[in-house]
Amino acid sequence: MSGYPGAPPSAYPGAPGAPPAGYPGAPGGGYPGAPGGGYPGASGGGYPGAPGAPGGGYPGAPGAPGGGYPGAPGGGYPGASGAPGGGYPGGGYQGGEFQSAPQVDPQVQQWFNAVDTDRSGQIDAQELQRALVNGNWSKFSMEACRMMIDMFDNDKTGQISVQEFGSLYSFINQWKATFEALDADKSGVIDAGEFTQALEQMGYRFSPTFINNILIKYNPKERRLTLDNFIVATVQIKRLTDSFRARDTQMQGQATLVYEDFVGLAMGAHK
């Protein structure tokens, strides 16, 4: 029997060969068991406890307080009419692929050479992490670096070429500009109000509880976001929103997902 196993109740600065600590483009530094793969125990592979959800659906809660799904009744999907940039800065991201620049800017080439410490002609997540620091001097998380490599790795080798790095370079600078505009006190972090403002500018409407939970996930003590976590959070929100929108065929803010599809979306294995 397969399915959901029953649970009992219960870039650091100063690295050799690395460019000056900061972001690309920041001179001298800066922001440096059930058949069919269903949920066991649910007939037809559905999610137990979802009354009337055929095949295991997400029971839609119309009128969720504080907003919810942009584009459904009372809102709009980011990227729909009136949502600039397609849901976040760097709106050139379309369908999981970025177009590599045909020519490489000399500054991009210089950064690439500095980050490519093993001189392989490719950059992986570990090399990227050594070159990037947040505004509070913490290094970028490995999660953020892996995600950015994956976003621009068009041939899916786990590394990026100098052309792919050119697109990543532009992407980071756009995020940096957005983040710095929000970070009024130049502390290198943004709080709940600033994060809410950023999401609203991208076309999203979320409840204060949702915002707070996101902040707790990344920084339970201070509940503030550094740039790397800001990038990860907003890219994930856009990815899941786009996936949900593709399933919300009636544009009502509700969609039916079978258990396996839900898990695949959560893990980033499904589109």
Describe this structure in words.
With 271 residues, the protein is an all-alpha fold. The chain has a domain of 159 residues: Recoverin, domain 1 (Orthogonal Bundle), CATH 1.10.238.10. The protein is built from 8 helices and no strands. Helix 2 crosses helix 3 and helix 3 packs across helix 7. It starts with 105 loop residues before the first helix and ends with a helix.
Put the structure in a nutshell.
The protein is 37% helix and 0% strand. It is mainly alpha-helical. The longest helix is centred in the middle third of the chain and has 21 residues, at 162-182.
Per DSSP, what share of the residues sits in E-state strands of 2 or more residues? under 5%
CATH homologous superfamily designation of the domain at 101-259: EF-hand
Distance, first to last CA: 27 Å
Structural class: mainly alpha
Mean pLDDT: 72
- Tell me, what's the shape? globular
| Architecture per CATH nomenclature, i.e. the level-2 architecture of the domain at 101-259 | Orthogonal Bundle
CATH class of the domain at 101-259: Mainly Alpha
If helices are DSSP runs of H or I spanning 4 or more residues, what is the number of helices?
A: 8
Helix-strand pattern: HHHHHHHH
Poorly predicted parts = 1-22, 25-86, 91-101
Number of strands: 0
Helix fraction by DSSP (H/I, runs of at least 4): 25-40%
What is the quaternary state of this protein?
Answer: single chain
CATH fold annotation of the domain at 101-259? Recoverin, domain 1
